[in-house]
Amino acid sequence: MGTTPMARSDKHAGQGRVALVTGANRGMGLETCRQLLARGLRVVLTAREEDAAERALRTLAAPAASALALRLDVTDAASIEAARRTIEEQLGPVDVLVNNAAVLLFEESDVLEIPADGFSRTLETNLLGVIAACKAFVPPMAARGYGRVVNVSSGAGQLASMSTYAPAYSISKAALNAFTRILATTYRKKGVLANAVDPGWVRTDMGGASAPRSVEQGADGTVWLATLPADGPTGGFFHDRRPIDW
């Protein structure tokens, strides 16, 4: 990891930066957008359906110059490329990428009872979709010498404590963690900091109403990593701003 795992975010460092959040029309993604806007970033709120993105953006009541709603499906390379072009035309290049979009399928199934399609659909969004988004947005960050990538992972993906919960989801998040480490090492000398975050069990459509954490609490770590100073950590896995075991 980087020099200091507890490096503070510079609340002014985000001024004018452009942040893209996937799966942002509700829950954690929407709250992440809200908090990034409050820190002075310009935000691109994306969702698989443009109407859903636009409805979510209206709830933020953000100035038009500060926020943009777009369709972006991480499983559709054409939609990623179209979003990239539109963002650069309207706001400028992306400085911060928050890979929040994810699916949770066959949550209570035995690992050997999940059909092959269940694993492939999960990995397509939770891992391959992240890689596709990074392919589009990270190399330009490196070329400019600045970038922040936050991969929203889960405690379910921790090998140190993994059990039988949501096998396809857990496996996909463990793989996402591995990708995060490789990405961080690849770009650590090019100004791009890449980290994974476990937001905890949050009250969202995915987490359910009985979850103990609010979306505000869950999004805090993501926003912290998205606004790290230059000497912040990279290649780490964090919960509540503290490094945790893989």
Q: What does this protein structure show overall?
A:
The model is unreliable at 1-6 and 9-13 (pLDDT under 50). Helix content is 40%, strand content 15%. The chain is of the alpha/beta class and 246 residues long. It has helices at 27-38, 50-60, 77-90, 116-144, 167-187, 215-226; strands spanning 18-21, 42-47, 67-71, 96-99, 147-152, 192-197, 237-239, 242-243. Helix 1 (27-38) packs across helix 6 and helix 3 runs parallel beside helix 4 (116-144). It has 6 helices and 8 strands.
Q: What are the salient characteristics of this protein?
A:
246 residues; alpha/beta; eight-stranded mixed beta sheet; 8 strands; 40% helix; disordered N terminus
Q: Short summary of the structure?
A:
By secondary structure, the protein is α/β, with parallel strands linked by helices. Helices cover 40% and strands 15% of the residues. Helix 2 (50-60) links the parallel strand 2 and strand 3 (67-71).
Total number of helices: 6
Q: Which bin fits the share of residues in helices?
A: 40-55%
From the N-terminal CA to the C-terminal CA, the straight-line distance is: 12 Å
Low-pLDDT windows of residues: 1-6, 9-13
What proportion of the residues form beta strands (DSSP E)? Answer: 5-15%
Task: Give the SSE order as H and E letters.
Answer: EHEHEHEHEHEHEE
Structural class, from helix and strand content?
Answer: alpha/beta
Question: If you compute it from the alpha carbons, what radius of gyration comes out, rounded to the nearest whole angstrom?
Answer: 17 Å
Q: What sort of overall outline do the alpha carbons produce when their principal axes are compared?
A: globular
Largest β sheet strand count, sense and barrel closure? 8 strands, mixed
Q: Going across the major beta sheet, what is the strand order?
A: 3-2-1-4-5-6-7-8
Residue-averaged pLDDT: 92
Q: State the total count of DSSP E strands.
A: 8
